[in-house]
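Provenance

Sequences were taken from public entries as deposited. Structures were produced by running a predictor on each sequence independently, with no templates supplied. The record for Cadmium-translocating P-type ATPase from Clostridium tagluense is shown for reference.
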Amino acid sequence: MSSNIKTELILDGLDCANCTVKIETKVKNISGVKSASVDFVSKKLFLEVNSKDGLPGIIEEVKVIVKKIEPDVVVREKIIQKAEKKVVTLMGLCCANCAVKIETNVQDISGVKSASVDFVSKRLFIEVNNKDELPSIIEEVRVIVKKIEPDVKVVTEDEKKEQVDNSPGEGEKNRKELIRLSIGAAIFGAAMVFKFSTTIEFTLFFISYILVGGEVLLRAFRNILRGEVFDENFLMSIATIGAFSIKQFPEGVAVMLFYQVGEFIQGIAVNNSRKSISALMDIRPDYANLKVGNDLQRVSPGDVKVGDLIVVKPGEKVPLDGKVVEGKSMIDTSALTGESVPRSVEAPNEVLSGSINKNGLLTIEVTKEFGESTVTKILELVQNASSKKAPTEKFITKFARYYTPGVVIVAVLLAVIPPLVMQGITFSESIYRALAFLVISCPCALVISIPLGFFGGIGAASKNGILIKGSNYLEALNNVDIVVFDKTGTLTKGVFKVTEINAQNSFVKDDLLEYTAYAESYSNHPIAASIIKDYGKEVNKNEIENYDEISGHGIKVNVKGKEVLAGNIKLMNKENIVFKYVEVAGTVVHVAIDKKYAGYIIISDELKEDSREAIKGLKQIGVKKTVMLTGDNKSIASKISEQLGLDEFYAELLPVQKVEKLEMLDKEKRSKGNLIFVGDGINDAPVLARADIGIAMGGLGSDAAIEAADIVIMTDEPSKIVSAIKIAKRTRRIVWQNIVFAMGVKLIFLALAAIGIATIWEAVFADVGVTVIAVLNSMRVIKVGEIK
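Predicted structure for Cadmium-translocating P-type ATPase:
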């Protein structure tokens, strides 16, 4: 007897949700198919067939069905080799221009699907087509990096600890650099202040020049040998050697000294920026106190297994997700959710890794391994976000690639043409102008500050409990036209609660609630559970007789010798009870006792406290339309829509119909506008994937929703969407300040250098000084306290 065979088919080009249902239905009817399911998000068809022998024929029938329903969709069998992602650290990377060159060259390696260098975190993200080719690709990466930046080391995760331990500290490097620059500056000062013979004066200038700029000259020479000409080392070398060639010795040394001091300050500013952003996400626990018998062992969080007991002392971070089994304490979850108010926990409450235990001693049973824990997921989302670059970043990368060679060509023309066509300008003067022009041309201010700004924006969002999976999504938040919400668990709490008890005909509220609770006590429906919870007392089931649950109507039962009817309008009509008709945003349970109408109880799914604030805030920041999609009935949806001030709502929708409505709404946005969908459950995954920006609410609720979403809100607060958009707008504002400032200053100085007004000294400020200012400006993004 042959066992069932499972296989997966890829439906390339599938973008019609309605067609997904049609394909699934038709495939299920193929002879030999035991089950079939189409996942619209991943565009996969999951098949289970009775026999392996019949599989080829079934696949051919599937292709015919798909061709008939969706002619443009291509059916192919699942590729065995999946794309593999790898992250390596580029230790010692301090040249933004070189980062761009490394990224470009790695992308050209055979077998590499995509490559992205994050200059801020010094990491290279690589995606390869074949996992087996990864070792050879990493070796090619090492060769490329060695060629472009000989002092940079390519370090994999396995090598990282050893490399860090063996590498000299940042402070030690800075100290040596400072000593070298100080000695060079002292010799230069002596040559400028004291009267020496021409030979000794030249010698002192030359020694100070070599001390200060020798490293720059050496790097430029190495780069030229490798064919890497157009970078800041080459530009500074040409400019200063040119100054020496026209006997401007003091200026040649001074410019190199100014440049190196500027680079030193720039390096410190960039490193401080990196540390500031890293500090925002300083939530990774260093250790766990594992309980072994009566003893505690300090171990790595990665060594703790599910079911183990750990002890968290006051002031320590919770290292893994788990539930409290002993102790009571206040915990600070601000690093995860952005909430400043600590919350109380005790057995059997759940606690999340990354939160901080404030006062009591907690014993926690671990429920997730470290690799699956909240803290690990958050760090992976934030750290990998920088691999998905925003359009502005991509533009600047391309711009830098063509800008510097273009300026060098203009500089050559500036050195040669003016003396030939204009009177009164010597070659010495025109060369000096061209040298100043060269110094200004380096685009470092843009290449460094723009990724730093986006990384800071992602860090600021994470500090607010908003996880943005890429700079591209952060930038997309600036152009939101339409926000579409799911209802249950997104705008409402998703928890049924008794919101009103209305007694009629001389009955009192307490009696009405008691009889209804007794009537509902055998039901496991959420509405019944909410009534029993609100009653709050123990139900004596010995006082219940003749229990009869009437499908689609309600319950008929004898309680304490009285006949109780509890149900909907249909039950009241069936039993000929004269009742009061009410229309509210909730479920109404009508109750009759001994054939006399006793009143009604309203059970509602409560609105979240900040749902109104969220809708109001979205309107204030320029969102044109807010819409709600729900599977709930029309009257409830209408009331909620009215209470929140939504522009539109669509009720009684299946998950597939939500996608259809979303596609309809998508046509209403501007050509450059974006549509957001906000949901929380697994049934929202198709809609989250279809929207321009998918936002998953209640970040830890559904893994499928988190996977499909582009942004994850760690709390259940819809108002965090407003915060995310404000952070995005603030980030874009600062990034564009840097672009306008850097380009404006450079264009002014390029013009001044071309007409002979700007000196090389001023040119160095236009390069290094502008970079430092732009980096410091980028750091304003992470001031999360200003985001409300």
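Residues 99 and 117 are 6 Å apart (CA to CA).
The chain has 25 helices and 30 strands.
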